[in-house]
Amino acid sequence: MVLAVALGGRLAFAELPARLTDQELWKLSSEASEPDGTFHSENLVSNEARFQTIVPALTQTVAPGRAYVGVGSEQNFTYIAAIRPAMAFIVDIRRGNLDLHLTYKALFELSANRVEFVSRLFSRKAPAGPGATSTTAEIFAAFEKAAPSQALYDQNLKDIKTQLVAKHGCKLSGGDLEGIDFVYSSWFKYGPDIQYELTTGGGNRAGPGGIRGGGIRGGGDFPTYADLMTATDGEGRNRSYLASEDAFKFLKDLESRNLIVPIVGNFAGPKALRAVGEYLKQKGATVSAFYVSNVEQYLREDGIWGNFCANAATLPIDAASTFIRSARGGFAGQPVQLGRGGRGIPSVGAGFTLDLAPMKPDLARCPASR
Question: How many domains, the chain?
Answer without folding.
Answer: 1
